Amino acid sequence: MEDRVRTVCLIVIVTFAFVAPAVADELIFLNGDRLTGTVVEVKIDRLILEHASLGRIEVPLRSLRSARVADRLSRIVPVDDEAPPKVDPPLPPLPEDRVPPPEVAKDAPAEEPAAPPDPEPDEPIWKNELELGVTGSAGQTQNVRVRAAIRTTRETEANLFRWNANYRLTTDRGNRTENFFTTGVFSEWPFHESPWSTFAQGRFDYAEFQSWDQRLTGGAGMGYRVFDKKRVDEDGKESDWLRLKTRAGAGLRKEFGSVDNDFEPEGIFGMDFRWNINSQQRLELASTYFPTLDNLDDYRVVSSIDWTIDLDWFDGLSFRAGAAHEFESQVDPGVRQHDLSVYGTILLNF
């Protein structure tokens, strides 16, 4: 049908060409080529063009896109590929229960689950305390007592590290009655998802009024967390409440300036208890028993208790009241077996 329309249109064009004045006619082929001359005859399926160089040429109408007759008639016959495409109307959607499932390629490999992201490394949390307390009295007796201490703690899921140093000085009427310094480190490595852990510790002591001048101790062993209770505060945040840890191990003791300067093997049996009474108060107790392994009559016990209250009127400031006690079963004549220190100090947390 479209070929017939094109043919009729071309015949009409050429017919008008004969009626109009003789001027150059132009034929435009489907491939875009052009040919100029004078159309002298039109037939049903072709036309004859008089060309200045080629002479008379028969041109099939089906090879032409259009024929232009200058200044008389211009008609373009559209080709098939320029006709607007036919669009079928959309089909109505299928009911949901009849929608076919999506096709899955049989040979397509199964998608592997994405690898979990690498866990972020634990960030160390450092906590530091600077402690200072000074007391004195004047009257029939004059005495001054000074206590200074510093502690630093780093705790992560993989390790607990503590370092502390403590100095005590007491004078009575200008004479020293106590001059004591101690410093030590403690490190603990808990097992993953287990109450068990390993620990190592070391300490250096200096005392002016003891059976020894300096003492060096160290040891290692196993620890066990008896319980570690948590609680949820009013803001919905979980925090520590009650915790009890025990430990047992062995180590060596070396004294300088005593009657026995040899290395002595000793056991280590200790416990640590912490009770966070509320968000501002906490109670801590610690005690360790050190028996000499080759002479069980020679032993010492080191204990302490601290009650700490965070002060509202200054951020990072706390008050601490406590006592430290050390008992030695064998001492030189004139030296007390019990060494008790009671104190009240101000703490700066940073």
Q: How does this structure look, described?
A:
With 350 residues, this protein is mainly beta. The chain has 2 domains: 2-82, SH3 type barrels, CATH 2.30.30.100; 125-349, Porin, CATH 2.40.160. It is built from 1 helix and 18 strands. The protein has one helix at residues 2-19; strands spanning 25-29, 34-42, 46-51, 55-60, 64-69, 73-76, 125-137, 143-155, 160-172, 175-190, 196-207, 214-232, 238-256, 263-276, 281-292, 295-310, 317-328, 338-349. The strands form 2 sheets. Strands 7-8-9-10-11-12-13-14-15-16-17-18 form a 12-stranded antiparallel β-barrel. A 6-stranded antiparallel sheet has the order 4-3-2-1-5-6. A hairpin with a 3-residue loop joins strand 2 (34-42) and strand 3. It is rod-shaped and about 150 Å long. The two termini are 96 Å apart.
Offer a quick outline of the entry.
By secondary structure, the chain is mostly beta strands.
Topology:
Elements lengths: L1 H18 L5 E5 L4 E9 L3 E6 L3 E6 L3 E6 L3 E4 L48 E13 L5 E13 L4 E13 L2 E16 L5 E12 L6 E19 L5 E19 L6 E14 L4 E12 L2 E16 L6 E12 L9 E12 L1
Antiparallel strand pairs: 1-2, 1-5, 2-3, 3-4, 5-6, 7-8, 7-18, 8-9, 9-10, 10-11, 11-12, 12-13, 13-14, 14-15, 15-16, 16-17, 17-18
